[in-house]
Amino acid sequence: MLLRCDEQLLTAYRHNGEMGAEALLSKWAEDSVNPQxxxxxxxxxxxxxLFLVNEEVAMNVAFSTSRKYWGRVPKEAQAFxxxxxxxxVFMNERFDSFFYSQKGKETFFEQLxxxxxxxxxxxxxxxxxxxxxxxxxxxxxxxxxxxxxxxEYLLHMIYKExxxxxxxxxxxxxxxxxxxxxxxxxxxxxxxxxxxxxSAQESYTHVxxxxxxxxxxxxxxxxxxxxxNPSCLAKKQLQLYQIVVHYRLVENDFRKVRELIASFEIExxxxxxxMTEKEKVLIAYILLNVAHQExxxxxxxQYGEYLLDDERLNNYAIEIMLEYKELLPNIKPTxxxxxxxxxxxxxxxxYAILLQNYVLTGNYSKGLKLLKEQALVSSKKIHExxxxxxxxxxxxxxxxxxxxxxxxxxxxxxxxxxxASLEEWRRTYRNPEAPYYFxxxxxxxxxxxxxxxxFVTEQYELFEKLMGMYKKYLLVDEHFEEMRLFISAYx
Length: 491
Prior knowledge:
Blueprint: H1 4-31, E1 52-53, H2 55-70, H3 75-83, H4 88-99, H5 102-115, E2 117-118, H6 120-128, E3 141-149, E4 152-159, H7 163-180, H8 189-203, H9 210-228, H10 233-248, H11 255-268, H12 277-293, H13 297-308, H14 312-323, H15 346-360, H16 364-373, H17 380-388, H18 393-412, H19 418-428, H20 437-456, H21 460-473, H22 477-490
Helix pairs in contact: 2-5, 7-8, 9-10, 10-11, 12-13, 12-14, 13-15, 15-16, 15-20, 16-20, 18-19, 18-21, 20-21, 20-22
């Protein structure tokens, strides 16, 4: 079932693309007996009265559409389930019992209401009560979106056929809500805006420099919305989303990010919707990385220590990741490894950045303290040796063996042929085309900072052993030359 406005816009889009659909929206606006303000930032708006529905309609349409397209085990998933010993007849019976029962309908809507999206993969998890790693691309219905707007619902489907249109229309509906509805009626701003951004990207794949244009139009839209709405939680969340977007899509100039943060902190510092501890941590993490990119070492240390004190970043990391998935890199941390790309995990990245800036500012005692307190700054084996202070050949052999295993994982994701992996690594790790090039560069830089701290704090035995391993496995000429000059100047 399609809404009448969806059908008409789809017809116009098929006849004359986006221009045809925009022209129809303009005609509707001209013919409206209650004309609404339209700043035309993301083009024409659509009256929310045309697409918002009540709960009964939302439930019936979402469930019946899901049953129509997902009521049988998708062909793509059949082989997957058969390999797990699940009979196709049994599977379809489970689908039937779900889709032809009131309980199934209620469960479906509850999950859609809670998650705001539904895909066939999510449906399979729902029906069978456990997550199954099955990736299905061919279904005609790709995604269902559902958001509650006060007492009504935004219900929208993304279909495979004309998918660019459906993404464009979802973007239009969200934009129209921002312009025409009181902002306080919108909940889960961070999530709906993430879906809005994705739909904009899918709609304008042909547009040159999408990031620049999106940020420019987003700024205009949020300024307009700010001016039209009183202070409310949704306004704060929208501004926070704006900050995150400018940080994620930055083009080598962080001045706009800093301006937005300064304005945000002034507006919300003493408001009844004052900044929460989680929001302060989020802002501090962004400013840490901005300061690091701009080479403001003292500022990096200030924010880095703030995030580590009382485990602030760790305490709020999951909440931040749920709201802003792309902000905190979250590949599983590997405390046992020294060879890795530290940028792939938010905590390992924080430690590496902080250690580097301790070195840059001459805070070697703080660097040593950090190395002794946190294994993630180096590796478990190096950390153990440093804490015990009693070095042995067995310890150094264990550290080198761990480095060799790290390299084997980087090269072949396996410990079966460590010797062959080491040979391949030595031949290729300096090549920018190698898949582990960034891991090699990141590991070399972090090892250099560790070695500088050990040298200045007179941990000479460990320094010499690790330097030997560095030259054997991780040597990057530029980093090593800088280390040589450092030691010469210090001596």
